[in-house]
Protein 1
Amino acid sequence: MLNVEKIREDFPILETGVIYLDSTATSLTPKQVLSEMEKYYLEYRANVGRGIYELAERATSAYEAARKRIASFINAIKGEVVMVKNTTEAINLVAHSLKWRKGDKIVTTLLEHHSNYLPWLRCAERYGVKVEAIKPTPQGMIEVDDLEKTVDDSTKLVAMTHVSNVLGSITPVEEAARIAHEHGALLLIDGAQSVPHIKVDVAKLGCDFLAFSGHKMCGPTGSGALYISREAWEELDPVFVGGGTVESVEEGRFTLLKGPARFEAGTPGIAEAIGLKRAVEYLDALNMDHVVKHERKLGERMYEGLCSMEGVEVYGPEPKYKLGITSFNVEGLDPHEVALILDASAKIAVRSGMHCAQPLIKQVLKKPKGTVRASLYIYNTKEEVEKFLSAMEELTRSALKRK
Ligand code: PMP
């Protein structure tokens, strides 16, 4: 079990009294991550992969150690990890570095965050590839049967989220890997909402790409990573080139480096990578199995509490099929009104609106104004969930009275 009271001491922002239920958008940052980044700025501030003086060597080895540690967090033993600034950048990197042929097919879903949908539409415009999106069930589940029917021999890439940022539903990624590979396609997993919460093992999943953001998992903003399998490596031609990516340059030609630096053009987020390394150490010390257990327990209580309230509509599957994210609406109120009332009445931070997932919200859930979303992480307590539910009771009572 997590020692939540002790964990909370690492997050001074909680002393403001905020009940932070928006970790799906971005998590809070523990002191340990900040002091690691500060150490870089104050003690060995230099660029990486360039100078040979002592400070530069120290910065380079800290940066490469960060890459290695982040890779081991997802068990990336059979591939490379490229440092990026977020999930969106990682997915766009794949979209524009893959060697497409006209007529190639990309299979994705309508469960996706815009960051795992728009890049594929852009590929269709630019490279003449086709995009097919699988519709989830009304509860936000992706059926293996639909994957079987949609992925065929013309499919070059299957791009799917691991966990929905709106509903918390978990997708069948291992089956997706099997189906994609049976047809010679590659599998990209958007891990923005899974890597921070559950143990993700790329060797076990068998995916070719895994994209995730550091800022959703206790790391700094502007940090993230892209795992690339050995098989997929050959299929990529870096979209950005320049300083830091080359082995040699002559007039009129260049040879790129062999390793992940070939994808990291320009000075990278050095403090950010170092901060993300500290964040994965922090999470590993808590134990990811305990992290998910904690969130699921609180999530279940939140889901059941909301489901039992008159005038509240809850979306998504039952708790056993999802992580600690709950989307809902209150009859007679816009999602933004609910968020503003919770903030004003109880200092509760929840997200409201479209959650960067308009196809899901408009076409599948059919909620043109969006939803309210409450999400949980390591620092949330049972008491906070109870306070949230009491605030919701009060809010729905007055909304029903006004009807
Ligand atoms: N995919 C999913 C599932 C997400 O939840 C998010 C962030 N809400 C993203 C992609 C985009 O992440 P970022 O803004 O860090 O690029």
Protein 2
Amino acid sequence: MKTLLQGGTIVTAADIYQADVLVDGEKVALIGKGLPVSGAKEIDATGKYVIPGGIDVHTHMELPFGGTFASDDFETGTIAAAFGGTTSIIDFAVQSFGATLTSAIEAWQKKARGKAAIDYGLHCIVRELDDERLKEMDELVDAGVSSFKLFMAYPGVFMVDDATIFKAITRTGENGGLICMHAENGGVIDVLIKKALKEKHTEPKWHALTRPPEAEGEATNRAFRLAEMAGRLPLYIVHLSAAQALEQVRLFRDRGLPAYAETCPQYLFLSYDNYEEPGFDGAKYVMSPPLRPKWHQDELWKGLARNDLQVVSTDHCPFCMTEGYQGLPKQKQLGVGDFSKIPNGAPGVETRMVLLYDGGVLGERITLNRWIELTSTTPAKLFGMFPRKGTIAVGSDADIVVWNPKTTSTISAKTHHMRVDYNPYEGKQVKGKADVVLSRGEVIVDEDKFVGKKGRGRFLKRGSPILQT
Ligand code: URP
Ligand code: ZN
Ligand code: ZN
């Protein structure tokens, strides 16, 4: 099956140029001006951008958290991702206490297989690390699970100590994996939470008030120091939200260390003020790290423009506000009367590309090329998928989005495809839209319709990070 994308403007991390793209089977076969149709299905991309599919390296489909599960599964979440122009995700498999890392991966494969509509990779969240698990890390890297998340927060649930972090980072120096760090000082946060609850502060805003940006700055510094002591090894900070943490990334990068970090749209477009919304509505934004005062946004945008931040992911982890939505159980409401029981996380897998295009490119904060670099190319490089994913080049997977730069729409839970009953950006007007989405050569979204199949997404066996950036 051949498809010819005609007359569009190809945008990659490096180039902007007018050319046709011929897709043969799952791959890009030819790029050139005026390519002959010769039996191919034609897609008219005139006046539109032809971009590599988005890669979201931070999602949590069906994540168990605080007595419930994230409301999107691999079917609903990946279809929503496709509507937004994302064609690959990397989700987090969680090691159970007393269990192997391999069993975590098997459990997540079971959640994904037969459901994922786009290609998916897996990171492994490590909660316990004895000698056997260290050996398992090597095996997972060989099996294509080449990244591991560790937590410096959530004591008793996810948090690991510095010795564990040090051992894990050291091991990646030998096996070619990459450690992704949730950097918040969990011990300090726990003290602050207990104090707030004792003083009867129960509303959602106290989630943010008990997780100060300094707790993120301190943990980020400690994480990079540990990576430095392990032999100046690469380390990737996930969901960076605060200027204090960014300052540390910059410091270590300026000193020549392989220090990397992602931020997420919520930290660029939302702020602490959202927690002040009436009633229990602040719970919509309960995520960790929390939203910060507005001035942090400018710092993060500067970080993106100057490459101190290299990736924009979503940390997509939706929980419903109302019990019973599409048959789902009580989720955010578990924390009515106690902010510390509100499941942490918010939806975003569908809106990442458009928010970054509208607020970033059209807002003149980043260039068109940088938009692609942040949302597709660097994610592919850092997580071992480049050049198969993350660019439009002969031989690459034909994960391609025909992006209409002119369409204006209003973000709303009424029209989004994520299985969650609210949208953090409700009512926001944005320009730009994924008109047609191809995943490995197959059209899966065509003008507001999902035309792919659930379960067609394949597991992405990933390699070691490419650390040039
Ligand atoms: O609040 C968040 N971020 N929930 C998902 C888990 C995590 O820490 O990434
Ligand atoms: Zn995290
Ligand atoms: Zn996360």
Protein 3
Amino acid sequence: MRDIPDYPKPGVVFKDITPLLADPDVFAATVDAVGAPFENDRIDKVIGVEARGFVFAAPVAYRHRAGFVPVRKPGKLPWEIEREEYELEYGTDLLEIHRDAVHPGERVLIVDDVIATGGTAAAAATLVERLGGTVVGLAFVLELEFLHGREKLPGRRIHTVVTYS
Ligand code: AMP
């Protein structure tokens, strides 16, 4: 991974994961590490958060023989949706999920590349629970610990592969 200062705006250090994705061994090891703690859990669906979450959630779902479900930015999903608003550093944003993507009682793992302030992950968990799913846990490649994302996910099972403190 490499740090890109002041991207996409001044003051943000963007964690660019594209070198990790391009390396066959590192990519495979990272996918394995993201899903490993949940190997013995029954997982029905793995949620990927647009867009970089898709890259890890899909292979984790395949390994678990679970279904893959995209949680997307507004206006991207073609069918009936549930929508959740969440806070950004400045302002708010929306996440959407198809209404039939998770069935009541299904066990769900949420996957994204980075947990920063935790708002995105908390919104994804809210959407899953609104559809009647159970959030088994949340898994991330990278945690930016200094942004205290875990505080938005109290009591949840959280797994991160690499932590920046
Ligand atoms: P947050 O809701 O603050 O936890 O932000 C998490 C989402 O924003 C994830 O989907 C990440 O892909 C993205 N993100 C936030 N901060 C960064 C960062 N410094 N580098 C790369 N991606 C980030």
